[in-house]
Design goal:
- The chain is built from 16 helices and 2 strands.
- It has 471 residues and is mainly alpha-helical.
- It has a two-stranded antiparallel sheet with strand order 1-2.
- Helix 11 (273-302) runs antiparallel to helix 12 and helix 12 crosses helix 13.
- The longest helix has 50 residues, at 37-86.
- It is globular and about 80 Å long.
Length: 471
């Protein structure tokens, strides 16, 4: 097919306006992604650099970032609400005029546009008011939470090996996932292919035993990935716990060894591998059940499309997802307990539930602060990576048509770089979240067992005792 950018009319004529509008764009997007591989690799390193920069900002100015985020929410939701209320009933016309499109909207929307717009405006103004109340009523909690966030960042920078874990995890998990996906494709394609005698296009046909093999392969694959995640969480918890229990010297600093990460890896694999594997198996089972429900939903949609079955499957899916999220949260806390006490998984899970109950207020404040910073950090890294890719892809050798790096559609690699940046950002924020949770758990464990808390940072003490006083 001719290059649709240069020979647009010819491409449309040959493809009868179908390939030129859809398949050609799809092929151009794929070719642009392949041609932009140097830019995408560069965006990975940009994402890593932005992750370190963001941690430095959190270390020194966590509180201004929280208030800046709250202020941005108040202003943005407030302005959007006022705009929607002032232009109720005419928003769609203004949007179409600004985009230069003449496509008509569904009648169900245009007939009730004014009502929908006013309701949306009310929701935006309500969110703006809630954000304002949050900043005013929880001023002390925000201060203490920000201080604990800064302590978590201090811990990460006191042990530089922690800062290398996100990159190592992203690389290892990416390679592992690729290997497991290739294995699944090989297993899936080992079945026969229909010859079309059933009235359907040629497709893979699987026997009952092959379906069982696929399910077992999915279970083992998810189990392996979840075990890697569990080991990753344990290593972070072990290193942070070692930092927490190291006493302050006469200069108010903690002298932590450089091998905490390797010690955590050693003890996690050799002494607590069974506990980590058991917790991982629980998550893997829920993940397999989720995929089976998704498959059942697809089968129902492609065959009978029964709304009752759709509703039942959706209900089961929500229940399984809720159980999975709960088990993941308990597992994370249990891995911290295992790193601190060397308990078995069941004993650690029991202790985790006790600590979650006793530290509920402090955990809510700290998790709220870390959630804001996590979302903000992931979005910042994602946008930075995407902006870098779009800027580089739109100039120089990447816009020369005779170049081997010709990128005809810069948005395609930009989207890929944005996704890659989000994954890198989540890897960084995972370390940050696990570090703050471990510090809080260690202090709560010492309080629960009446142990000396001299090694605890002052911000943690204010967080826990302040939340108890509020309750």
């Amino acid at each position: 097919l001719p290059d649709s950018r240069v020979y647009r009319d010819m491409a449309q004529e040959l493809s009868k306006d179908k390939l030129a509008s859809s398949d050609v764009n799809y092929m151009e997007a794929l070719s642009s992604i392949v041609a932009a591989w140097p830019v995408i690799v560069g965006s990975f390193f940009v994402s890593v650099m932005l992750g370190y920069i963001y941690l430095v900002l959190l270390r020194h100015c966590a509180e201004p970032l929280i208030y800046g985020t709250i202020l941005a929410c108040v202003v943005s939701f407030g302005v959007l609400g006022i705009y929607l209320f002032a232009n109720a009933g005419t928003v769609s016309t203004q949007v179409q005029d600004s985009m230069g499109t003449t496509s008509s909207l569904p009648s169900s929307f245009t007939e009730n546009e004014e009502t929908i717009t006013k309701v949306s405006a009310f929701i935006c103004l309500l969110l703006s008011g809630l954000a304002c109340c949050l900043g005013c009523c929880f001023h002390h909690s925000i201060q203490v939470g920000a201080a604990c966030v800064e302590v978590a960042c201090d811990t990460m920078f006191e042990m530089p090996s922690l800062l290398l874990l996100p990159v190592a995890k992203a690389f290892f998990k990416g390679v592992l996932s690729l290997v497991l996906i290739v294995g699944f494709i090989e297993l899936y394609s080992s079945s026969g292919v229909s010859n079309g005698s059933d009235g359907l296009p040629p497709h893979w046909t699987h026997s009952r035993d092959q379906y069982i093999q696929l399910i077992l392969y999915m279970l083992m694959s998810f189990w392996i990935v979840c075990f890697v995640n569990a080991l990753y969480q344990f290593v972070i918890a072990y290193a942070v716990a070692e930092y927490y229990y190291t006493p302050y010297d006469h200069d108010g600093e903690k002298d932590v060894g450089c091998c905490a990460i390797w010690d955590g890896l050693y003890f996690g694999l050799l002494l607590h591998g069974g506990s980590l594997a058991f917790g991982s198996l629980l998550i893997a089972i829920f993940m397999v059940l989720q995929k089976l429900i998704e498959f059942a939903e697809k089968q129902n949609k492609d065959t009978v499309n029964n709304p009752v079955i759709t509703c039942v499957l959706c209900l089961f899916g929500c229940c399984i997802n809720c159980c999975k999220e709960t088990v993941e949260f308990v597992n994370k806390t249990a891995y911290i307990d295992i790193a601190v006490t060397s308990n078995s998984f069941c004993a650690a899970a029991k202790n985790a539930l006790v600590m979650i109950t006793e530290l509920g207020g402090a955990m809510a404040i700290l998790n709220g602060a870390t959630f804001i910073f996590t979302i903000f950090g992931v979005v910042l890294i994602m946008l930075g990576s995407a902006a870098f890719t779009y800027f580089v892809s739109s100039q120089g050798v990447f816009v020369q048509q005779n170049s081997e790096f010709d990128i005809s559609m810069p948005m395609a690699p930009t989207v890929v770089a944005g996704i890659l940046g989000a994954l890198v950002g989540m890897a960084f924020m995972h370390v940050f979240d696990m570090t703050s949770d471990t510090l809080l758990y260690c202090y709560g464990y010492d309080l629960h067992n009446n142990k000396n808390t001299a090694s605890a940072p002052q911000a943690l003490k204010e967080l826990v005792h302040g939340s108890k006083d509020d309750n």
